User: Fold this.
Amino acid sequence: MTDHSALLHETLAAIAQAGDEAALESVRVAALGKKGTISALLATLGKMSPDERRSAGAAINALKDEVSAALDARRVALKSAGLQARLEREALDVSLPVRRAGVETGRIHPISQVLDEITAIFADMGFAIAEGPDIESDDYNFTKLNFPPGHPAREMHDTFFFAPDDKGERKLLRTHTSPVQVRTMLTQKPPIRVICPGRTYRCDADQTHTPMFHQVEGLVIDNSATLANLKWVLEEFCKAFFEVPHVAMRFRPSFFPFTSPSMEVDIQCRRSGGEIRFGEGEDWLEILGCGMVHANVLRNCGLDPDVHQGYAWGMGIDRIAMLKYGLPDLRDFFDADLRWIDHYGFKPLDIPSLAGGLSGS
Assistant:
């Protein structure tokens, strides 16, 4: 009986010290499992005489019942304590304001917003969207666009080149979206009327330049495209994008290998208080380059320049986003700063449209 009392005392102490249900289960197995201490006592009954078995059996069963009752009570206590801890851990302060839904807190990046605005404007003019790969061949990026051998743009200091492949050819990260124009002319028959938005890459980094930036180019190929058509398209785009009733544009002679004649376009503006307002003032700001598609480019793409002609233009999406929405530093576009996107971002449900306005809120 003394041994039974000591075993009971030891087992009850272990039950009381069990801090969770897993520890309590270990105590149960140690006492009542197949090889447990109390189970071992029950196994000895078979070797006793009937009188000894009657006396010892009653004592061992009473020990077993008391331990089982203690285990049940401790299990209930642990479950109650666990539930209470969970309630405290997951408690909600109903006096706090309700969190806004994700659709209200999320923001559209200004680049995505401006890209949607550009797409809406040109789609209304009847342009389709053409896309191509970011990794291009030297042929599509330079040669077919009439870049002569030795042109500075082909050098490593301006272009990101990959290591030569098995054939000795070097792929590159496209320096403009003009290769998409080449791919379009090679696969589609005129008339062609597309815009080519996408990422482009150049070795340049400062307040108004980044190694990766966004560009949109336009291409029209038919039998009668003229500079007058090009001017009208660009004027209508600028009026719609900058949301002004009229705009004055200035076309200056320039040079690009893939257009002839080539021009850079300035838009009339007024600078005051660190802001730029379009459609008024006496100042000018360059926004894009354009021109008639060079005859060599048409030939390189399988088109007869005596039959077909066209015009093209290109502008930086990041740059015109800065101009329209007053963004001071181009590098902020890519910093992933939540405070910046909360300030300059756009609400997801404010989809740009010509009918409802392009600025968002």
Remarks:
- DSSP finds twelve helices and ten strands in the chain.
- The chain has two domains: 2-89, 107-344.
- The longest strand covers residues 259-272.
